[in-house]
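Please produce the structure of this protein holding magnesium ion.
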Amino acid sequence: MTSSTLNKTIVGIIFGGANSEHEVSCASASGVFANLDRERFEPVLIRISRDGLWQRVESIDDPATGGELLPDLSDLDIVLPVLHGRFGEDGTVQGLFELVGVPYVGCGVLSSALAMDKLMTQRVLSAAGLPTIPTRGVSDRTRHTASAVADELGYPVFVKPNRAGSSVGASRVDSPAELDAALDLALASDSIALLQPVVVAEEIDLGVLQEIDGELSIGAPLHILSDDGRAFFDYASKYTAGGHEFEVPARLSDELRATLESFAITAFRALDCEGLARVDFFLSADGTVAINEVNTLPGMTALSQYPTIWEAAGVGYRELITRLIDRGLAARSAGSRSAGSRSTDARPAQAR
Ligand SMILES: Nc1ncnc2c1ncn2[C@@H]1O[C@H](COP(=O)(O)OP(=O)(O)O)[C@@H](O)[C@H]1O
Ligand SMILES: [Mg+2]
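Below is the modeled complex.
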């Protein structure tokens, strides 16, 4: 089966992954697989097991076991990584694609690695003049300083792993007695735990999509209405039916919407993103805006924010996937991977 005999683009959908977001990735991949335009694309499902072994499978929940350490990707026209978290969204898999020379959808090595690392993201965004949240990091070695750091920030504090996702390892700490357990939890997911003041805010997500010619489009702003009983947008609220609701488009003034859009574009460019990103904001009652994080491979289940953001902007899930793949192919043929998407900096930012 070759692309010439089928006259279709062979797309490797890579999912699973050796991290805490394995299941979320499988759910995202189901959405992508179901929405791949079969007129143009031929899917090949490739699963990475929790042990990091790569295997071609017939379906997302194929019970097959085994696999290999290094995959043969040579028959694929392009790969679409539908992976979240470490060893997927963090540049490592993107590095493998670069090494073997297979085109891929989305952010490259640098932007993936930067955006996965919340501390590094903040440094880059702050240097670009964007508002972020005061953040301090502690490791096992410097953990003894955490209680002084928390006192300095003032309770309640928010504790979360530097490199993780889906709210795994995150907790709100209301008093010094709870700090140790929160640090244990965060440090179980990464070597660095972050401490931040608890920001009482609305969460607004913006989706950035890069068009074939490199221009950036922004979807409808999405407001997350978390279940009132929860302290924050935790794993259960994210993935339990009824755990949250989205208001999309979020009711924002034109001025605020324009500000968030320009921040999202600046963040995308500052981190050298490519293809897509979801930029997540905290919006406090006094009007203060801060970027919480940037996701380079945002959740892609049919109910996830990124497809919802595009649906509301008139781009259905199927078209979204097609556009992502077409941009990945175009970026590769234009050589913009090796040149870096910073080459698009010269163009004026275009919000839609
Ligand atoms: N400083 C903070 N103050 C209040 N809530 C926070 C803070 N940081 C994170 N949260 C809550 O925790 C959730 C997960 O944190 P986030 O930084 O987005 O990590 P993840 O990569 O796991 O999504 C956020 O969506 C938000 O609800
Ligand atoms: Mg988040």
